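Annotated sample (chain length 277).
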Amino acid sequence: MSEKHYYWLKLPKDFFKRHDTAFLFSLPNGHQIVLFYLELMTESIDHDGELRFSEEVPYSEEMLASITHTDIEIVKTSMKTLQDLKLIEIDENGTIYLKKVKNMVGYETKWAEKKRVYREQKRQSEDNVPNVSAECPEMSDKRKSQSKSKSKRQSKNIKETNVEKNLAEVSPIVEEVLPEDEKMFLEFWEMYPKKVDKKGSFRAFKNIPKLKEVFPGIMAALEIQKQSEQWTKNHGQFIPNPTTYIHQERWLTVSQADEVQAKINETVKQNYQGFLF
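Output written by the structure step:
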């Protein structure tokens, strides 16, 4: 028999004050939309934020209305709004994916719960027992030796921490004297959504012909491609590795449809400006 797990949803303290939640509350039937969103999250906590009736059958809006006891029209409005706010995504196969849930789930087994309670009770019991034993001289000397060793280790750790602090303080100066191609690569790497083989990507990047001249075009194309259907579907499954992107000069493959979609996304973003993070 498999061990039973207990799951819970760890909502941030400011969940009901966040901009996206505040926007949902401001809509007609906003409280019901927020409640529906919370129900979707709790339904998906044991599947890493994925919500599906079965492997063969995805949830329909009618099914969601039934299991959450929510009016079907509110479900339709909620699903569209939550997608617009990027709080949920729906794959081509119908799987609903709640992006924030994966980092909001806690769980433990029944056996782990019992062990945790036992350890806590044991610790409290030990804390309540007075220490009346006297140390022999040999034990006392041993403890003094251990204390000196501990002090030396702490002193060493403090020195290492100070070195790290000094390096952190001079890092802006180091960044200013980086070669031009490395600066451009770091900007490219920061924007690129798939972080794979950084060293290999840099070797390929700095060998791009006329890099300084084509760099603005690379960044502009990358901004559009990040919003394209090919790169956003299936949680970025089809985003090429950065080395492949560079070697094959994929920035030259931006289509007119990609540019149109990017403009649509920008319009949606502007409409919700002030509400989103």
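Annotation: The CA atoms of residues 88 and 98 lie 5 Å apart.
Annotation: The mean pLDDT is 76.
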